[in-house]
Request: fold
Amino acid sequence: MESFESIDRTRLREVLRQRVNDGRIMRLIGKWLRAGVMEDGVLHHPETGVVQGGVISPVWATIFRHQVLEAWFEREGRPRLKGRAFLIRFADDFCIGCEREGDARKIMAVLPKRFARFGLTIHPEKTALIAFGKPDARQASAQGDGTCECLGLTHDWAKSRRGFWVIKRRTARKRLRRTKKSLWRWCRTHRHAPVVYQYQMLGLKLHGHFRSYGLRGNFRLLEEVRRYVEKAWRDWLSRRSSKSAIGWEKFQRLLQTYALPTPRLVHAI
Reply:
């Protein structure tokens, strides 16, 4: 879907009035919608959408998109399909799974029209029709190779240790590269901060990453992120000055005192 700035405020108020009848609450919501946003020290008041980064913006967007997509799918979309189907949505990302290819193509044809009624559009590059059946039962399709990316994870089929086909989930390559770049920039920016502070913050960042991507089958990529943090941390600690180069042996002794969190699986799905 489009970002928060594209939400139609008039339609958003109409959706909210279906559940909120208190005029005082609606006036308060109007003030939130008209609240400005500070960019480079200058206050801007957008005429459309909800303020990107606003405290209440994700709530308004979730309510609006629930009415646009989820409620419609349960009320009108699913009953018209011939096979089973499901919908998963998080913020402005969603995935619809259909048992039959004909149902999937029908939804792909209807969704742009549904979103257009509310002033929204579907991202043309991120939206795709993918065949995701088991490899031994997969039928030829005009699009799709049996692999899809959703919510920062790559989903594909693989053989288990017992020889059964199972769905494997691992960190998407784009998300992995973005995470590494972010960690590298942080270590560079804070290389002159106290070592204890750097250790605490890097630990929090790793814990957050493990909680988000600690799925069964993704342990190798969790270890890769931890090793990358060690490398970036040592490199930028060595650049504090021309006399503070830290070799791997010295850095390993440092890690004995400031041990970074080890990867762990949080979700067993």
About this structure: Helices lie at 9-17, 23-34, 57-77, 101-116, 173-189, 195-213, 219-237, 248-257. Residues 139-144 have pLDDT under 50 and may be disordered. Residues 69 and 157 are 28 Å apart (CA to CA). The beta strands are 37-39, 42-44, 85-90, 93-98, 148-150, 153-159, 165-171.
